[in-house]
Amino acid sequence: MYPPVFYLTSPNKGFMLGTGVGVYVGQVEPQAAPSGGFSSTSLSGTFYDGDSEVVSEAVSAEMIGVEALTFDGSGGLDIVGDYIGGYIGTEVNQEVDQTNSTSLGMVNSNGTFSTNSTYGQINAIMISTSKVVNIDDSTQSNPIIQVIKQ
């Protein structure tokens, strides 16, 4: 096992580096919950996310894309995405534009929630009312981790 190393850059902020053979890096920041905790009404407005650069040619880039997510403040979610499929080091084989509407599952007061959508099971945690971390492990052997920001 290769334990990560954490570096603090200021109070409540820092980053993490993996010590294994792969490239692992992450940010550390505090969760900023509204008074009384999070709920489905904590998410309102238009957010965006996009896939980060794939840093290894051995990693499949099955779907790289950008999404606009509109949360309606009462549990509804509309997603508009533009995706390109293919593999790093080969020709891109498809481009897909998708629109999806779904509803959030129950948002727990600690900011965690799940929902079923066209894209599969989405597990997420709210960092604040303007930032969500999404972990989608439904379609690939390597989960997709995305930061959704307003």
What does this structure look like?
With 150 residues, this protein is an all-beta fold. It has two domains: 1-30, no CATH class; 31-149, no CATH class. 0% of the residues lie in helices and 52% in strands. Strands 4-5-6-7 form a four-stranded antiparallel beta sheet, with no helix packed on it. Strands 8-9-10-11 form a four-stranded antiparallel beta sheet, with no helix packed on it. It has a three-stranded antiparallel beta sheet with strand order 1-2-3, with no helix packed on it. A hairpin with a 2-residue loop joins strand 1 (5-10) and strand 2 (13-17). The model has no long low-confidence stretch (mean pLDDT 77).
Fold blueprint:
Blueprint lengths: L4 E6 L2 E5 L7 E4 L15 E7 L13 E9 L3 E10 L8 E10 L8 E6 L2 E9 L2 E6 L7 E6 L1
Antiparallel strand pairs: 1-2, 2-3, 4-5, 5-6, 6-7, 8-9, 9-10, 10-11
Keywords for this entry:
150 residues; mainly beta; 2 domains; four-stranded antiparallel beta sheet; 0% helix
